[in-house]
Amino acid sequence: MTLKSLAREISELSDYQVYGRVSGVLGMLVELSGLDRLLAIGSRCTLIARDSRQVPCEVIGFRQGRALLLPFGSLDGIGLGCKALLAQSEPSIHPSDAWLGRVVNALGEPIDGKGPLPAGPDPYKVRNMPPPAHGRQRVGGKIDLGVRAINSFLSCCRGQRMGIFAGSGVGKSVLLSMLARFASLDVNVIGLIGERGREVQEWLEDDLGPEGLAKSVVVVATSDEPPLMRRQAAYMTMALSEYFRDNGKDVLCLMDSVTRFAMSMREIGLSAGEPPASKGYTPSVFAELPQLLERAGPGILPEGSITGLFTVLVEGDDHNEPIADAVRGILDGHIILERAIAERNRFPAINLLRSVSRTMPGCNNESQNDLVTRARQLLSTYENMAELIRIGAYSAGADPAIDEAILYHDALEAFLKQDKFEQSNLDLGYEQLAAAIGLAWPEGGDGSGAGEFQDAGLMGTDA
Q1: So what family is this one in (predicted)?
Q2: Dist. CA 376–CA 383, nearest whole Å
Q3: Are the C-beta atoms of 440 and 453 separated by less than 8 Å?
């Protein structure tokens, strides 16, 4: 810790302590008396349990002159009359570049057994406001995410925000690990919100691996932790991303998942007495989602950006459920993972016809747009006739467009399939896509010479 940060912490120490008393406990909700005039929404208190254990809490509302608090930990040992100390009202962290390669909890405390985290000189608010819209930079150029299907059909630009929508068990976590290992950005900040505790270590060691972890900071809040910890983990992920962005780094922010963040907000809202609005979600959930997601994107400075990829766990594979619908309207594109594609063993199981990147086609040149348009047409034509083709009801020669789609179908499926340890190249991907659909692609892979490729598949050669 530097002398500057030490002096600041000393100056923040109070000359005296203010405390109140617990006047009621119901479920996870604690009622507090004696501090109501000193507290506000978001203020922090520390409860002292019967065994002297300290339980940090946050104010979520007020009722009949009493403050309503939710805990960041277990309420075991908390009863009527327990002391509650007034704590820091605006929680902040002091991150530094030494946090790379580390795993922290929602409060910014290390949980990887590698010792304490070095403190940086500047504080960063955990709950921060997005940059002003009129002062933000525009999104940058295309970035190489290392996944062929996304690079070619759903090109992502520096500072863009994309959603990955899927049901459970369709491959979201594996796709995130591929993006973390292969993306050509400076730093990864990964938030695992409400993850299964058993799978965290497996994901870190097997999927992310030492190479991916070395340029990442991972924030973990497992499903058994209180809702405040799961919500706080999402805020912590964004605060760390903002630190690296403000230091001129291009950050890849990966969050899995926004749905579990929304579920934690629902639990908090219902505990505070909010009425449920849609599928049990309270109005504060839909107010909080844009405040969280808008923190990603380009910053005010020319250098540095946060490219956000946020997963959404759709309930019952319904992509129009309330959270999916709300998030889709906030982000700059969506990647749909489909169970039917996963069941035929094509991973990543991206349904390209239902997925959109809002920076396309503006980020591509003419050749690349023509190539992607042609490939999409082939995929769409095959998909429209897929059932008839599978049952043998379609007769070859009945429609030249369908015959062409059938001809290139297997090559396109092979192109879209990618092993989780296989890295793809942005420029090479266009060349491979052109070869898969029988087009001659200009040398160099950059698509120069717009509109000059020729159809090789319908001139007597097989795909």
Answers
A1: Belongs to the ATPase alpha/beta chains family.
A2: 10
A3: yes
